[in-house]
Amino acid sequence: MPRGTKLNNEEIHKIDAFRNCGLGIRDIGRRINRSDAVIRNYFKKAKNYGIKKPTKGNQKISKRSIGQIKEEATKNKLSASHIVSKLNLTVTTRRVQQILHSCEHIVYRKSIKSPNLKKGHKEARLQFAKTVMHWNTEWKNIIFSDEKKFNLDGPDGLSYYWHDLKKSTSPRMSRNFGGGSIMFWGAFSYSEKLPLVTVPCKMNAEGYTDVLEEVLIPYLEKNNNVTFTFQQDNAPVHSAKFTKQWLHSKNVCQLQWPSLSPDLNPMENLWGILARKIYGNCRQFQTVNDLKSEILKCWAEIDETIVKSLINSMPNRIFEVIRCNGAKTNY
Questions:
Q1: Cα–Cα distance measured from residue 265 to residue 262, given in angstroms and rounded to the nearest whole number
Q2: pLDDT band at 268 (very low <50, low <70, confident <90, very high)
């Protein structure tokens, strides 16, 4: 008889008889040709052996409860397990998930990181958009830049929630935290990507200008037939007095950039493309050197058509800001 097969009544009677005679589990198993685990399981369950517990998932659920499940998932952003607990449901967590998945306008999606835009930020974004709304080919002469931290275990802040497609997305506030990681400074223009440079996670203005001296200035000198404008966000190290004076001394033309506007910077999208290549199939890294090598390799492999398409998206981004009255866009 195969191991793990349920004991029949005859075997159960024999087990009880042998047990009454003082035989141990191993001796009983040997006499009826069953494993020790099967005999031990029988003694553990005793009178409940062979009796299946009723599953919650087979119980019916009312239309009212289904409506409450959908509301808790999309309005209060509760997980399936928390919904079962809060509503005191008689069905399993899996059944709640099935109910939500069966609804066409509800999807399980990743939370979107978003800065907390206040009234002043929105007004500045709107004013910037109106200033450059007539730009077209001008975007080809912008050098977009940004810093990005890469962790050994993958991107920061993976959070998922149930989203009602009939409603707007629910971004969560962006938070930074440490860990095994490496940070890069990167930039690109319509014509090409600039070399990536590793930078400290905590960088001062002097260190930042050293990076620009190493990468940006040679690029501008190599392409001195083009009048480039340099874009950077308003991070403290970028807006420091030392940095501004240094850029002015190097005759670097700067783009006046609105605060808290990562959705307007195509460099953010390029970082996203790079991260997906690096961490594909839930890949993780054991050492910082391994991660660094993979980042540089994947950066080199990004096709120039992707770079050009990101620059070409700028007019649409600008008009989206105007349409949203300065609020966050979907870029």
A1: 5
A2: very high
